[in-house]
Design goal:
Chains A, B, C, D: It comes from Halalkalibacter alkaliphilus. With 341 residues, chain A is of the alpha/beta class. Chain A is built from twelve helices and 15 strands. Strand 14 of chain C pairs antiparallel with strand 14 of chain D.
């Protein structure tokens, strides 16, 4: 079996998570990791059998043995790293968002296209079995032509304000997953966005110029409507539900829970809360996304979640922010590129 | 519209419940009520527009205007009242059990047959929409040939010990409903009973010679097996579930709850407890059983729950008691009569 | 027991439904019914024990024995009938919407106030046990301060186009119930509406100048956001769900089903579809609303669903229509009156 | 990190499953595999990085580097292999049942005790998160003193008749898992068994002297009752549910499904069927049992599922068979050993 040799750029929480998951995939070998600070990573790297631990990501790009890189560094570094990796002929797995600037993202993706390497964006939710099933029910016609999409997406607790300040804002940091999910489930592009947002969870988030509660209405190219509701704090856990309603029926995905045990006592009847956060809820999806990336690189097949998908999600996030600021719906330019199915 | 004129014998809890429900049925007029003590019933009878309130049930039997009687007096009086009512040419609705003696019941039913009047036994659960649907799924072949029947039947709180002493015991008082449900759902007679019981809820029940917790295994004429589990105290409410498993699938009826609201908080995710007891759970079933009785009398159609059904449930209860005492399975005699469908 | 004597104006579907339900309430006597055409109603009126059947509603208003009237005639007649009934000193139960004109409604309600009679608007859903429980969970603080309201409201099949033409449009005819539910659950006034709508179910509805699919975003005076999604056709039945999410948790009401039976076969695992339409889903709510109206009239207590509630729902419907036409959010004037709790 | 070096005896379906799972546990190295026929296993062993592939299990027992063996060969070989492995000082993981003879099992376990090695029996269901939670709810007192235990355990399809003939019969092959689960959940020994069984699925099973449908009633040392229902064929999938009912409430574990998506169409409302069979349902439990075994060996901690647990399950299976044959309840001898918690 031929293996895919990888380098990881950025060993923060998500970078280390990917290393753990990549080690479960027999087709993959994680050879190298770079980070701006590596002293605290020595024993970790040893345990994970990483051969090369370096402060310079160029060591990875210059290593001819490395087939692909995972870009897990801060968002502001993504676009340049994509360009350099593409130039070095490496396949790319890049965390979301690609950048905070649609133009930067476009430039970076142009380099990827020129280089002919593959790029996958880290929209892990596309690999969740519940959402995959909902999408398949749309695609196979079970629910007919889609009319209404609903996504509920609420975090269990707000990030700290420092994170909020550098996050690009709720739409770019959090809702961007939902914008991608909307396109993924609907199989059609978003053509108009109307956003409403407010600060109800944490005043400090408002003082940092962001919102923590939002409802965003979408219009799709196929004529359907959609709505996303977001909150930075659902005290009962990570609330991740979707529904697509069409002329033949409706498909709803509920939250996952640790067990399906129901307990009845004199006080009440209870079941488990939703799984706490993305690490618990999307455990398998994180494994599946890197497995599919490896497969696409090794077998030269289509990427499920492309650079164009990353770009479109950013465009919608940008439009949502503009709608929030102007109080008006914002049109998105039609694009000749299509949703990858 | 021709109306059915009724007399009620016994104005205890169940008798008064029937009066309330009968008043919702346009085809019915409740003319008379008898009870051994009537002083405390005067204002009640007036409010319910009862014309005749008497201490002598014979006043009802002798009233030519009365078409049918409801026997809601203590069990020990049922058999004689049935005989007298039959002799008087009245249709009969009799609460369960018909009597504590299979022979007495047989004698009483023989009089009913001779008189050619109708008799319905108060197995109200046959009229519950959930159980009706399960039965229909058996009858229409959806689940195929039945292999296993499961009934869970647990009361929310034990009766007081005085009641227990005069109740005929758990099997005759409480499980008798489940024995009837078993025949009703399975559409086949019980041919063997094995009972296991114990005292876990209230030692006073044990001292009164009864049990409060039981598991009863049934064999049916069609070869299927069944199991009933009983408790006198489910602290979370009235637990009434059934399942029939067959070679094409399984059908399960769950408990009913006051609302379907689900509440998620930081502590837990809760839904409503099961409805508290039989008055709440079987509200509509109690209305439907008397409506069907009226219809059967007025239109001379088949009774859903016959005297034979009452007799068979008693026979099974008797066998269960014997099995509990002997520690061995007890066979039931085959009968040429059939389950009414 | 003192009884409330009623006259019914308009004996169409909803008028006759009310007669059936009113007959279940012991405190009520339905004496008279008026309709523009009564020939076909003779046997119905006899069966329902209606004393007076007339083509002239003034016969009801002039009858000193009549305490209250039910206005069940076409919407365009409501405002004048309210004024006349108020002038005649009758309490009023009026179907929704009060009128198609906020000004007309305001005028009619002013007459009601002057006359000092009671008026209740037929927002039957306020009496549904599921929604009542959700509201109580908001009011008792279980879910904390509300942040997001979600209402899904979809009919099982579209009305015919003739009805659509005279209905006042989706927002005034159908969503008006949801606008009322939004205020009822949130306990706070709507201050801004943004509506998106389209024609996806039936082109004839579009040709009649209406829409059949909509998403409406609401802002409340308490700072919360809300969203309603509507469709004129959910092929699986009447889809009526609500959720209120707050800083202490979330409360969700699901659809009601005829039974809770679950069937597992080799093909799939199924449960009952949602109850078909409003007559099935809101059976008990229709009974409860007239019972509460009778109680309020007889005991001079507060009406649960007032004329002001009817007026506010119309104002929101009007604003939604304007938002749909202009493509912009529409502000609602603050009002000194308060949501009745 | 010190690793546990393993040898696998028997590379049939379950042996190869364990190899796959063991490779996911970083603390484990699978060095050797023995099987009576190895020609077809060469490429598999290479892919799985097995160093030694042999037809002689003694090669494993004689290898000083090997710390523990997995006994995955046919049941009739287990007892001798346990004795030999114990004599060789190897820790032992043995598939269920230990043997078809209680005496043989006792002898084998005596050798294990003498040798002071650890033994774990492959009751994988003890590691299922649903059942673990139910057990914890019993142990922490949430449901109070247990009164009634219910286990539903049905396979999706019957084994072929050749397997049936060598399986030891339904109770020893299939119900043995449920007997273990009963002890595990109840935390108390079984003192009496009453078994009822029949052939409803496949006449060939009956001709082979076995049954395919059963209901088994249990009495526990703590006074509680229990019931297990079994079928060799549930056409909708692997049906694995448990409930424990106590004086403070009840805890129910439902089946697992591939997704939680609910689909509503004009025909019906569906959700996923139960996961197909044990490989799907207990995927994680199989991983967790070997992980815990490795941990217990490496850190010298208690085994969750001991040889005594294997022995007790066999004793109950034996008693169930005897009850089926005699038609009477069978008592189990009290034992001074206790349920391991």
């Amino acid at each position: 079996m031929s293996k895919l040799t990888l380098g990881i750029i950025g060993a923060g929480r998500i970078g280390r998570l990917h290393v753990d998951n990549l080690r479960l995939v027999p087709e993959i070998r994680v050879k190298s990791v770079s980070d701006v600070a590596i002293d605290h990573l020595q024993s970790w790297a040893e345990e994970k059998q990483i051969d090369v631990l370096t402060t310079d990501y160029k060591d990875l790009l210059n290593d001819p043995e490395i087939d692909a890189v995972f870009i897990c560094s801060p968002t502001t570094t993504h676009a340049n790293l994509i360009k350099e990796a593409a130039a070095a002929g490496k396949h790319i797995f890049c965390e979301k968002p690609v950048s905070f600037s649609v133009e930067e993202t476009e430039e970076a993706l142009a380099e990827v296209e020129k280089a002919g390497v593959k790029i996958q964006i880290g929209f892990n939710r596309r690999f969740d079995p519940n959402f995959r099933k909902v999408r398949s029910l749309v695609q196979d016609g079970t629910i007919g032509n889609p009319h209404i999409l609903k996504i509920t997406s609420r975090d269990p607790e707000p990030p700290n304000v420092d994170y909020v300040k550098s996050s690009g804002g709720l739409f770019m940091d959090m809702t961007i997953h939902d914008f991608d999910m909307a396109r993924y489930l609907m199989g059609s592009e978003v053509v108009e966005v109307s956003a409403h947002g407010t600060v109800l969870v944490d005043q400090a988030i408002g003082e940092a110029g962001d919102i923590d509660t939002a409802i965003i209405t979408l219009k799709f190219e196929n004529g359907a409507l959609g709505v996303i509701d977001n909150s930075r704090q659902a005290v009962y856990g990570y609330d991740q539900r979707v529904e697509i309603f069409g002329d033949n029926g409706t498909a709803q995905a509920d939250n996952n829970r640790a067990t399906n045990v129901e307990v009845s006592t004199a006080e009440n009847v209870t079941k488990d809360k939703p799984l706490y956060f993305f690490l618990e809820r999307y455990t398998q999806a994180y494994i599946d996304e890197v497995t599919e990336f490896a497969k696409a690189c090794l077998e030269n097949t289509e990427i499920t979640c492309t650079g164009f998908d990353g770009l479109q999600a950013e465009r919608i996030a940008k439009a949502a922010k503009q709608s929030l600021e102007t109080g008006k719906p914002v049109q998105l330019a039609r694009t000749s590129q299509r949703v990858v199915n």
